Amino acid sequence: MKLAYLVNTYPRASHSFIRREIQALERIALPVHRFAMRSDRGTLVDAGDIAEDQRTEHVLERGLVRLFGTALGWMVARPAATAAAFAQAWACGARGAGGPAGTGGRLRHLIYLVEAACIARRCCDLGITHLHAHFGTNSATVALLARGLGGPQFSFTVHGPEEFDAPLALSLGQKIEAAAFVVAISSFGRSQLCRWVAPRHWDKIKVVHCGIEPDRFPLPAALPTGGPHLVAVGRFSAQKGLDLLIEAMAIAAPALPDLHLTLVGDGELRDRITGQIDRFGLGPRFTLTGWQDEAGVRRALDGAQALILPSFAEGLPMVLMEAMANGRPVIATAIAGVPELVSSDTGWTVPAGDAKALAAALLTLSQVAPDRLAEMGRAARARVFARHDIDKSASLLAGHFREAGA
Fold first, then answer.
1. Quick one: 271 exposed, middle or buried, by C-beta within 10 A (0-12, 13-18, 19+)?
2. 3-state SS class at 254
3. pTM over the 0.85 mark
């Protein structure tokens, strides 16, 4: 089996789960060639991501002249396949149009077509028989078009929420139909994919959980006392619900004088988030750490009694798994795949978009006896190890590759 992975931007600090998956596949003697369109190396802080960057073939770093030359050579030699792939890219571009006439979407998809021809060429050179894309967005589009241009069969993993926000614009149904198989990371995710294809395609939609490496989570530090002290980890973006969390903190603060929250991450909404904190007069109750490597995230979890996840939209967040593996109960909104992991003995789920419900959960947490909270942390750890061991997930995924004849 000759396998390659394709990701638009790789590695990234927020995509360490892809690195873990690849490395787990390689531990069971399934080597993976890494393709990415571009690197995010300027933002990488984790040594594992930096090493992974050096192992990845970044297509756009070949330069435009070489890129177009490679693509043109491949397409000229395959005129019929190129015509069909061009028509497919044009149609996909119309569905994902950037304007009323579809010009922006079509232009993007013609760029994807060039990238696809280069990927098809490289797969041929390397003898790669199966291409697996992560995310059902542009990386899956490139894999789809590469297949149409005579490249290898493909599959892809859908994470959400982006794919679920725009399934028609992303031609999600067409991608599922053309793929050898498709991976959803939760049963909720699978249900959403089933909406966009006929039932005869449902069997090819598999559930394979993203995973953690249990050996990297030794016995956790004891839960701190006082507080409550909480941590939230993620990009400062609209889908993460941080504005709502700040409002919930403001509601709960009068009853909880020692309430404190550490925010690990950064992003486009940083100024808005800091402005909200100041507006509510909550500055002393917040610590903003910026992006942290895995060790930094672990330290933040060690200093908290629970993780809080106020998101409006998710797939199934890795930070949820990491917090539970670190023996921390969680407070999370009941969205997407979250209720499949968080049970009543491992934490609390609350309705999304409800600041009062989030504040009530903070108050409930403060009233739980330390022994009971520690018991919930142990239950969280056992549950995530049972459901999200990356070696088990990789073994399941490898089986799907083999069944597809890769």
1. exposed
2. helix
3. yes
* Domains of the chain and CATH, by start: 3-211+389-403 (3.40.50.2000), 215-387 (3.40.50.2000)
CA distance 188 to 213: 23
Which two tokens mark 37?
A: 């369109």
Q: Give the strand pairing for 205-207 and 181-184.
A: parallel
- pLDDT tens digits, residue range 33-54? 999 999 999 988 888 899 999 9
- Write the burial class of residue 231 (CB in 10 Å: 0-12 exposed, 13-18 middle, 19+ buried): buried
How would you class 312 by CB atoms within 10 Å of its CB: exposed for 0-12, middle for 13-18, buried for 19 or more?
middle
pLDDT (tens digit per residue) in 147-205: 999 999 999 999 999 999 999 999 999 999 999 999 999 999 999 999 999 999 999 99
The DSSP call for residue 212 is B
pLDDT over 90 at 25, yes or no: yes
C-alpha–C-alpha distance, residues 7 and 159, integer Å? 13
Mean pLDDT, residues 207-220 taken together: 94
**Chain centroid to CA 117:** 26
Q: Which amino acid is at 361?
A: A
Whether the Cβ atoms of residue 102 and residue 93 lie closer than 8 Å to each other: yes
What 125-128 contacts at long range (C-beta under 8 Å, 24+ apart), as own/partner pairs, is 126/2, 126/4, 126/33, 127/2, 128/2, 128/3, 128/4, 128/33, 128/152
- Please give the Cα distance from 249 to 261 (Å, whole number): 9
The predicted structure's pLDDT at residue 99:
39
Amino acid at 93: G
